[in-house]
Write a structure and sequence with these properties.
The complex is a heterotrimer of chains A (501), B (347) and C (314).
Chain A: E1 2-11, E2 14-24, E3 29-34, H1 40-48, E4 55-60, E5 63-65, H2 70-75, E6 78-81, H3 93-97, E7 106-107, E8 110-111, H4 113-126, H5 142-154, H6 156-159, E9 164-169, H7 177-190, E10 194-199, H8 203-209, E11 212-217, E12 220-226, H9 232-239, E13 264-271, E14 275-282, E15 287-291, H10 298-306, E16 313-318, E17 321-322, H11 328-333, E18 336-339, H12 343-347, H13 354-358, E19 367-368, E20 371-372, H14 374-388, H15 404-417, E21 422-426, H16 434-449, E22 453-457, H17 461-467, E23 470-475, E24 478-484, H18 493-500
Parallel strand pairs in A: 3-10, 3-11, 6-9, 9-10, 15-22, 15-23, 18-21, 21-22
Antiparallel strand pairs in A: 1-2, 1-4, 4-5, 7-8, 11-12, 13-14, 13-16, 16-17, 19-20, 23-24
Chain B: H1 17-46, H2 62-87, H3 95-112, H4 124-145, H5 150-169, E1 174-175, H6 179-186, E2 188-189, E3 192-193, H7 194-212, H8 214-224, H9 226-231, H10 236-262, E4 264-265, H11 273-283, H12 295-314, H13 321-337
Antiparallel strand pairs in B: 1-4, 2-3
Helix pairs in contact in B: 1-12, 2-7, 2-8, 2-10, 2-11, 2-12, 3-4, 3-5, 3-10, 4-5, 4-10, 6-7, 7-8, 8-10, 11-12, 11-13
Chain C: H1 3-6, H2 10-25, H3 32-41, H4 43-57, H5 65-83, H6 87-108, H7 113-132, E1 137-138, H8 141-148, E2 154-155, E3 158-159, H9 160-178, H10 180-190, H11 192-197, H12 202-228, E4 230-231, H13 239-249, H14 261-280, H15 288-303
Antiparallel strand pairs in C: 1-4, 2-3
Helix pairs in contact in C: 2-14, 4-9, 4-12, 4-13, 4-14, 5-6, 5-7, 5-12, 6-7, 6-12, 9-10, 10-12, 13-14, 13-15
The chains are: A alpha/beta (501), B mainly alpha (347), C mainly alpha (314).
């Protein structure tokens, strides 16, 4: 009934979807799995109309359609239940359900609350939620909000002719176990009303619920398995299964780290609900890679080390000194450098030039009584431009105008020139082209040789395996397993994926 | 099939943050209406003129209540107008200009069309409301179309408005002495002048718009989550424009009552409305971030502000202290209504 | 050539064009003596705008400057007899304190600066009314001349007032471009998250920016007060709009991070030329406010960096 044929989607520098064929039959639950970056979310966005494919076509019951925006997709029966919840919390439940479609309840300019309330009750009954539609949404539990969203999408049933396709994006991530159970039963019951596309990183859930499962890798569908034939191991192999090019990650350059000294220790550290009871130690020259799916707590750990988050329990020590104050300032003072994922927001200051960016974290070293020694700053910048091969016309160039790879190098130079001994890298190669990526790998090795301890959240698993001495696998904020990654004895992708999902 | 999968959320503790914010302004108002008579009583006691607490209070009397309400009405109209804007998470600082322009145009039209409500001059009233609407609409256009933050767009528009009013009057005062129009102030029903009832009717209208019309509810949707509202297919630009237009109409209403109260229209008619109305709205518990609060909150807020102003005079505090007290009040109210977990940084 | 390329040069081009237009229409505009007195007249406004630049440069705004200047005119007049020249210190301290409180309320208590400074402005007004007893006050002529007479002298034909303005400009320019504080201001204005992630004490920088704005407003008030030989809680009214206009037409956008104090110097001159043009065109002085209100809207619309508003404009 709903079908994608040979759909292509390009972004600058990325071929995000490669000739994807995708089909949903009436009353079917289709699962969609893949590693981070495999193209799941792009595919979803194409399906619900947020992106327009630049090749192939979309067909509904055989006729080709094209959606300019999510609203048009909705009018064709395609609804989305968002992972980040899309309810407006200060409105009542019924207002949320009918937001943008209130007109049906308006007579002479006046809203008939009673009629809306009754209609909302009907929708809520579909998801078996017995609450007062006049309740303020913020008073509901997460699970209830999820159901309200589902009810909101199900209003399409009355609004359009034809069949419904409902996308569920990681619907279970905020739910407790029993709530997941209830949601699944509900979805199975609703199969007669709508078809579902179910996206989750929890493999067992996808396997249980779905009639068929699409497996994606690198922007392409690599396999479609039916519920009865599905096996976790086989699917996981298909999701990864790539040869690692040792040359590419400079594996031959990996040297053992200095296990005698400790730079950073985490002892049973927890942070709110983002990660719990995490312990590890970082040594000079060691590259530790945190591996897990989105939301597994990797980034939160980095931000805690840097001081941007304050742990709720456990203790953090830097060079055996217990950290008592958590702020970016104390992190910088302790010799920590942070290369954030959002390079343009937290990495460089767009609007400031190369030398201004490089000395931003260490201005006092280049100033007498608050007056800057600008010529020294420029000398420093010229040195590092040469050392890292930063492509910029001069030191006066606005960093916002540099290419991604060069921006990354400027951020790196900022911390390295300041003498940071602990480097935190959050997706340092995200959005870079291959040449720039290799530069970053080279620099990681170089820092490691210089005795810098590195904590890395890598863009891909291959990267993680290739670069690290140690891998820590996380899942839903819980520590899963530690792998040693000596050259030649590295764990396989499959080993990691097995513990991730 | 009929089983219920999730019951209502367990009731949180009785004193939730939401509930405190909701009721605190009213409690403050009640507290103030009791504390001023107390000070008054104390003062009299010290001077040896004992009086019965509350019963013989000068503050806590119908006459003084009428005085407070009369002073409140124009500000209430203006504050209600800006409430709609603040509900959307924006702000409108153009009220001083708009009120002045509406007052002056009303007065000119009223006088040149006959000078009494019993003639065609009554048309000056709808004219003033239309002028308010137009000014509000332009204000909204500058904000939405030029994509200028509303506080700056409206501040600039306010300056333009005041300048325009000055252009019209050349600095003169225009007297509106029609007895029928002035009956707004002079004729009293049950001890309160007509303008109090007019303001009450307008407040009910505003409440009706807020709670029973799509537009009113859309203000809350925009304030609660603009991007989400947009994603749900709401025409946010249109809602914003309508909001500013509606605010303009209420500003015009404020201008009419202000002229009715003093009998004079001039460039300075709008003076002080900006600070008083913003103070009233935030003190009433409407959050500056949008989405929470409403017309009733503003009513309470306006009363708090005016009770303080009046009470300070009654217990003999110098009048210059009022501005400072209101200034501090605004800061306290905004601080209390801000959920610090949800804002990252503020400029 | 794209608009974005011309944009940084727009302020001085505007100034040049305006000067030429006014000059062609009215050649006497170029009369040095007249020009000099025009420039001198605008000094208090310039100093206030200079301070405001710091608040806007970090992406905030300071709406308290006018009331603060009012307060200082009163303080200066009342305490001149007691402190003599020392009253200048009192004035500067008052400006610093009020500004720092605005900054504290904004950064630590999360009150948007337009509200916190508006509120602090009313606190200042209250204080001004208290000190003045709600009357217009006058300075003792002799005392004034002995303490502050030097402000209004001439050296080699250059009014001292102008010298003060230039000294302050150089000082502000040095602060902005040559010091770690100035660099921090730029970082906060251009990209606050990155400034935080670089370990800067962003809160302190912001509080100081507002404090400096207060100090400059106080200096402006002091000069104004001495110039008019008196003080009043409403003396400096009308300055706020012009100060904002001067900063924005100078090319420091409401979103901060670019522009700076030199731009404000150009912006103030633009304001001055527009005023002169209005006099020539016989536009009534009462119309200033309307004209500058419209100029303000145009200036904001042209300079504001919409990419920094992250899609939602409230």
């Amino acid at each position: 009934m709903y079908e994608l044929r040979q759909v292509d989607k390009h972004f600058p520098g990325v071929h995000a979807l490669k000739g994807v064929d995708f089909k949903v039959k009436r009353g079917e639950i289709v699962g969609l799995v893949g590693e981070n970056g495999a193209g799941k979310s792009t595919l979803m966005k194409v399906i619900y109309g947020a992106y327009q494919p630049d090749g192939g076509n979309i067909a509904l019951d055989g006729t080709t359609v094209r959606f300019q925006n999510p609203r048009q997709a909705m009018e064709h029966g395609i609804g989305m239940v968002f992972q980040e919840q899309s309810l407006i919390l200060n409105l009542t439940v019924m207002e949320n359900i009918f937001l943008g479609y209130e007109q049906q309840f308006v007579k002479f300019g006046v809203i008939n609350w009673k009629a809306m309330s009754e209609a909302a009750r009907m929708q809520l009954a579909k998801v078996k939620l017995d609450i007062d539609p006049g309740m303020t949404t913020s008073e509901l539990s997460f699970a209830q909000r999820q159901l309200v969203e589902l009810a909101k999408v199900l209003t399409l049933e009355e609004r359009i002719d034809g069949d419904l396709v409902i996308l569920l994006d990681e619907p279970t991530s905020v739910l407790a176990k029993e709530e997941v159970e209830l949601l699944f039963n509900l979805v199975k019951d609703l199969k007669q009303r709508a078809s579902f596309i179910f996206v989750s990183h929890r493999m067992d859930e996808v396997l249980r619920l779905s009639d068929r499962i699409y497996v994606m890798k690198d922007g392409a569908v690599v396999d479609v398995v039916s519920h009865d034939e599905a096996e976790v191991d086989a699917i996981q192999h298909k999701m990864v299964g790539r040869e690692v090019d040792k040359e590419y990650y400079r594996e031959q350059k990996q040297r053992p780290y200095d296990a005698g000294k400790v730079l950073l220790t985490f002892d049973g550290v927890s942070c709110d609900k983002r990660f719990e009871d995490v312990s590890f130690a970082l040594h000079p020259g060691e590259v530790i890679c945190l591996v897990g799916t989105e939301g597994s707590g990797r980034e939160a750990i980095l931000r805690t080390i840097f001081g941007l988050e304050t742990p709720t329990s456990g203790s953090v020590a830097i060079r055996n000194q217990k950290v008592t104050r958590f702020s970016a300032r104390s992190g910088v003072d302790a010799g920590i450098g942070y290369i954030p994922r959002e390079r343009k927001v937290e990495g460089i200051v767009a609007g400031m030039n190369v030398y201004e960016n490089m000395t931003l974290s260490q201005m006092n070293k280049y100033a007498n009584a608050g007056v800057l020694r600008v010529s020294e700053e420029k000398t420093l910048a010229r040195n590092w431009i040469e050392r890292l091969g930063i492509k910029t016309p001069d030191v006066y160039k606005d960093c916002g105008g540099l290419s991604g790879g060069n921006q990354q190098k400027v951020v790196l130079a900022k911390w390295r020139s300041g003498g940071a001994e602990i480097m935190l890298l959050d997706h340092p190669t995200r959005g870079l082209d291959i040449g720039a990526k290799e530069d970053v790998y080279e620099m990681i090795r170089e820092m490691s040789h210089a005795g810098v301890g590195i904590v890395l959240v890598a863009d891909t698993l291959e990267e993680a395996i290739g670069l690290s001495h140690t891998i820590l696998v996380l899942k839903d904020g819980q520590f899963q397993k530690r792998f040693d990654c000596a050259p030649g004895a590295k764990p396989s992708l499959y080993d990691l994926v097995h513990h991730m999902i | 099939m009929t089983e219920v999968v999730a019951q209502t959320a367990p009731r949180a503790s009785f004193l939730t943050r939401d509930r405190i914010i909701k009721w605190a302004p009213l409690l403050v108002l009640v507290f103030l209406t009791l504390v001023f008579p107390f000070f008054e009583w104390l003062e009299d006691l010290q001077e040896g003129k004992q009086h019965l607490f509350l019963v013989d209070s000068r503050f806590f009397s119908i006459r003084n209540a009428a005085r407070i309400l009369i002073a409140s009405t124009p500000a209430l109209m203006v504050a209600i107008g800006v409430t709609f804007i603040i509900l959307m998470g924006s702000i409108d600082l153009s009220m001083e200009g708009t009120v002045s322009v509406c007052a002056v145009i009303f007065a000119f039209a009223f006088i040149s069309w006959g000078g009494t409500l019993a003639s065609w001059a009554w048309l000056a009233i709808p004219l003033a409301l239309v002028v308010g609407a137009v000014l509000g609409f332009i204000n909204g256009l500058v904000h939405v179309r030029l994509k200028i933050p509303s506080f700056m767009a409206s501040l600039a528009m306010g300056f333009v408005g005041t300048g325009f009013a000055l252009l019209l009057t050349g600095g003169d005062r225009i007297r509106v002495e029609d007895e029928i129009f002035r009956s707004l102030l002079t004729v009293r029903w049950f001890n309160f002048p007509i303008m109090v009832y007019v303001a009450l009717a307008m407040t009910l209208l505003a409440w009706f718009i807020q709670s029973r019309t799509t537009l009113g509810r859309n203000f809350y949707a925009v304030g609660g989550g603009e991007e989400l509202a947009h994603a749900s297919g709401l025409n946010v630009t249109r809602v914003r424009l309508m909001g500013f237009t509606l605010a303009g109409v209420f500003f015009a209403m404020g201008a009419l009552l202000a002229v009715g109260r003093i009998g004079i229209a001039e460039t300075a008619t709008g003076n002080n409305f900006m600070f008083i109305s913003i103070t009233a709205v935030v003190v009433g518990g409407t959050a500056l971030w949008g989405g929470i609060g409403g017309v009733w909150n503003t009513l309470v807020g306006v009363l708090i502000v005016n009770v303080i102003n009046n009470g300070m005079v009654v217990i003999g505090l110098p009048s210059y202290a009022q501005d400072g007290v209101l200034g501090l009040l605004v800061i306290i109210a905004v601080v209390l209504s801000t959920d610090r977990k949800s804002v990252s940084f503020v400029k | 050539m794209s608009f974005e390329r011309i944009k940084p040069h727009l302020p001085w081009i505007t100034l040049l064009v305006l000067v030429l237009l006014v000059g062609i229409a009215n050649p006497s505009f170029f009369d040095p003596a007249g020009l000099l007195s025009l420039v001198t007249d605008v000094v208090p406004l310039f100093i206030m705008a200079l301070g405001m630049t710091f608040a806007i440069y970090i992406g905030g705004i300071d709406l308290s400057v006018q009331q603060l200047a009012n307060l200082v005119t009163v303080i200066a007049t009342v305490y001149l007899a007691k402190f003599g020249v020392g009253v200048a210190l009192v004035a500067v301290a008052a400006g610093f304190i009020v500004g720092a409180i605005s900054g504290f309320v904004t950064t630590r208590l999360y009150v948007p600066s337009f509200v916190s400074t508006l509120a602090m402005g009313f606190v200042a007004l209250s204080a001004a009314k208290y000190f003045s007893g709600q009357r217009a006050l006058y300075m003792d002529a002799e005392l004034r001349n002995s303490s502050f007479g030097w402000m209004f002298g001439n050296t080699a034909g250059v009014p001292h007032e102008l010298v003060i303005a230039i000294v302050l400009l150089v000082l502000a320019w040095f602060l902005q471009t040559r010091t770690t504080f100035g660099r921090s201001l730029k970082a906060v204005g251009s990209g606050e998250p990155a400034a935080i992630a670089s370990g800067l004490n962003v809160d302190r920088v912001k509080i100081l920016a507002f404090a400096i704005s207060g100090v400059f407003a106080a200096v402006a008030g002091l000069i104004f007060s001495v110039k008019l030989s008196g003080g009043d809680a409403n003396l400096a009214n009308g300055f706020l709009l012009l100060a904002i206009v001067a900063v924005l037409v100078g090319g420091t956008p409401l979103t901060g991070g670019v522009g700076g104090v030199l731009n404000t110097a150009i912006g103030t001159l633009i304001v001055m030329v527009i005023r002169a043009a209005m006099v020539y065109l016989e536009i009534d002085a009462t119309q200033q406010q309307m004209v500058f209100g419209i100029v303000l809207i145009a200036a904001i619309a042209l300079t504001i960096d919409r990419s920094k508003l992250r899609g939602v404009v409230k």
